[in-house]
Amino acid sequence: MKVDTQQYLDLVETHPYGIVFWDLEANGLKGDYNSVLCGSLKPFGKKPYTFSIKQVGNDQRVVRELGHELEKYFVWCTYYGKGFDVPMLNTRRLKWGLTPVAKRFHIDMYYSLKSKTLMARRSMAAVAGFLGTPEQKMSVSQNVWSEIAFKTDEHMPTMIERCESDCSVLEDVYRKTRHLLGEITL
Description:
CATH architecture: 2-Layer Sandwich
CATH superfamily: Ribonuclease H-like superfamily/Ribonuclease H
Strand content: 15-25%
Helix content: 40-55%
Order of helices and strands: HEEEHEHEHHHH
């Protein structure tokens, strides 16, 4: 039996653990050299919530709790999450002796839109700007990125704000392009 994608989305959008928009912020791009700073989740139509570190490099609690929370949901929605967020989270979980997160149906808006649209720039900021979403992608200054390791307490609120904002922008992009979504894969 095959289920229509749009009908399936109608169903999961109504379930408390149906679909979650999520994002990670990290102090770099490689899980063996860098660590997770925070991870935010935004259940469909609800406010985002965040797990964050106290000290750069010590992300064991965050990756454990974030993974546990993600596994409650039926469908994940990310932007380039298959290329960064999931591998980064799993690499950091391996570092701490944890198993990788269990796979879920995963809508990666980057790949979904890449195959259905023809845009010069494919970043979430460019897509959100093009679509005129209610919230736009938040930028973070180079100073915050370069100082986060030794001014964690000072800069973590900015990183959390950005991570939660990314989840909200992602939901806006999803809502405006949901009709383009085809088959949902793991």
